[in-house]
Q: What sequence folds into this?
């Protein structure tokens, strides 16, 4: 009787190994997202289109786009509802920050990290200062959060 459970358990393990695990990419699948053709795409946001929903098929791209849209319009309802998916400095309110009203970026590469996070390397430009985090080589550190991607940190890297 005890051997009856072994085939059932083995079948369950095989089925779970073959499942796609949902529509969100995991850190192990991160490099595959770049091959979907988004590496050459230019993403642009301004005061008018910052309120539009993300239409990309990549959860990682949508996470970065949300952070940039909220950089432009931090008081928008969609930003307030998703504060836990972005660094808190995005919501700082001070005129001296030089908050941009236009941001453009291009994805250069994705780098999975051993802890399950992913770094998205981008090249961007903006019409503000914003801590130096929208001009040049910008890296977004992301993690999975409740089945979606969230931006944990943003930093700039000097060009060589």
A:
């Amino acid at each position: 009787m005890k051997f009856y459970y072994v085939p059932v358990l083995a079948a369950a393990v095989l089925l779970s190994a073959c499942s796609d695990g949902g529509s969100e990419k995991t850190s192990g699948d991160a490099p595959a997202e770049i091959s979907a053709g988004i590496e050459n795409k230019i993403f642009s946001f301004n005061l008018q289109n910052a309120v539009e929903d993300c239409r990309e098929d990549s959860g990682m791209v949508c996470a970065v786009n949300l952070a940039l849209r909220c950089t432009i319009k931090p008081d928008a309802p969609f930003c307030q509802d998703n504060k836990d998916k972005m660094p808190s400095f995005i919501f700082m309110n001070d005129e001296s920050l030089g908050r941009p009203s236009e941001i453009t970026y291009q994805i250069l590469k994705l780098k999975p990290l051993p802890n399950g996070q992913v770094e998205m390397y981008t090249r961007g430009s903006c019409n503000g200062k914003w801590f130096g985090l929208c001009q040049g080589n910008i890296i977004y550190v992301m993690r999975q959060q409740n089945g979606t991607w969230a931006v944990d940190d943003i930093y700039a890297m000097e060009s060589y």
About this structure: The longest strand covers residues 102-112.
